[in-house]
Amino acid sequence: MRVSHETIYARIARDKHRGGQLWKRLRHSRKRRRRYGGRDHRGRIRNRRGLELRPAVVSERTRLGDWEGDTVAGRGGRGYLLTQVERKSRYVVARRIPNRTSAEVNQAIRDSIRHIPIWLRRTLTLDNGTEFAGHAELSVLGFDVYFADPYSAWQRGTNENTNGLLRQFFPKTIELTQITDKQVARATRLLNTRPRKCLNYRTPREVLNDLTEDS
Questions:
Q1: Domain containing residue 9
Q2: 86 in the same domain as 2
Q3: Is a pLDDT exceeding 50 seen at residue 83?
Q4: pLDDT, tens digit, 9 for 90 and up, residues 145-175
Q5: Among the listed residues 3, 4, 150, 21, the one whose alpha carbon sits nearest the alpha carbon of residue 12
Q6: How many domains are contained in the chain?
Q7: In a domain, 40, yes or no
Q8: pLDDT tier, 10 (very low <50, low <70, confident <90, very high otherwise)
């Protein structure tokens, strides 16, 4: 017998409604399950390329170099993290940024991938936030940039899941202006050296290193 994830979530929801505490044991400790959909009220991004133009091989996870990116906000919008995750290995890089201007975001992307070889920069799939309005400048770094559909976080599921893992270190209740670069480096190091079931219990760093050596 197998129990679906929907059955588990329904059981947790009923328990919470009765005053239970099971929801607090969820990895993301969300009080409510996130719902997606609705109209996009954010600014338009010029020269935006959607996923329909992205090479099909990216969805297959058969090669290295395809990344997903997003920003994570601190409490009250005080401080942010720029996060990027490699789709095949789940290797994550993150950088603190004081605000979400396109200039700050682009500089943070440059800084965070300095140690990533140019051949490992194939595509970058982003959220539709206006902080990525300067995406055209990223082509000089080696990326072909694409955008997920509005309010379709599952199209960047690897990044969304990794952001949830980072929230274990930096919960929504804290201002990200109060954390240090050293703390961010420690969090990404722990995530990159954590065995993952989806990687056959290998770590993102091991997968990235092994595949890099084989290439």
A1: 1-31
A2: no
A3: yes
A4: 999 998 888 999 999 999 999 999 999 999 9
A5: 21
A6: 2
A7: no
A8: confident
